[in-house]
Amino acid sequence: MKTIRIWLASSVLAAACAAPAQDKVFSGPQPGEKVTPFKVVTMTGADAGKERDFVADFKGAPTVFVFVHGVERSMTPLLTVVDQYASERKETLRCAFVFLDGDRVNAGQRIPAVAGSLRLKSPVTLSVDGAEGPGNYGLNKQCLLTLVIAKDNKVTANFALVQPGIADAPAVLKALGSMIGDASPPDAEALRERRMAELGAGKGRPAADGAMRMRPAELDLSKLDLGSERALRAAVQALTNEVVRLRAELAAARGSAAGTAKRDPAAQPKREAPKGELPGAAPTDPRLLEMLRAFIQPGNDKARVDAVLKEVEDYVKGNTDLTKQAVDGWVRVLHLKYGTEYAHAQGQKMVDRFKK
Length: 356
What we know:
single chain; Glutaredoxin; 2 domains; 46% helix; globular
């Protein structure tokens, strides 16, 4: 079934790409535009369950609105870095996390779990407008995160992040610092270290698996809008992401099936491996799998690729099992030629280092 959906998504993508398209992804109000009031329900703290309008409440103060369409493990460091910076600059900077979900009942259970797992200090809320978010904001649901940074109710910076990660932190922190007059904002690593010291968390400790299972809905091909140049650009990006996501899931499923057979030889009769069997295997570690998905994104630049690979090396360092999973995972995606040419070269270098 996934193979059929990949073919369908690829076919529509090919048709969409017949018209000129750019890599730029748009989501939410752009720099220079006004932020307008919208309603949310507070999910945590003493005000849990109450409706609020932070645009009105903050009265034009410097603010970062973090719109969250879905949560993946690879993006959590960025969320916590933004939260920590806002906490340290709370006298001059406001921050609000706005989750977007069409199922208000289930979201009411999942979102507090995510907030508790990440120990977010800023208000954590749910948009009353469902998965699309505030109607006049034009949020792109293919972006896991949209950060709208505003002062005097006018947008000063916008970050539409399809596959967000810690590599996005320097640009975000620079934009926040520029808005509040902080010429030398701390780097992401310093913020993470201070946060861990404050909260008593172990370095690199991942959040609980159950809290990390919020994912954006699968792309509905029938609802793509190709009626304008801007909509076409968004559709091309969405289709590209869908093809990559489905291929990764298919590879992971094949890897899991192969892994099960290896662990249980009695599950099937002994036979020679087929000539067409893929090398390597999908990682079983959730965090490694998310890093692998981040690595194969076709829109990654060199800095993003380098950041993902560094995160992998830091994560598996000294752990034989994780190192083997990383080697197997990268061998597979390199064989399939997923990702950019630069990613292929750097990924192979990492594999070679791990094999020494």
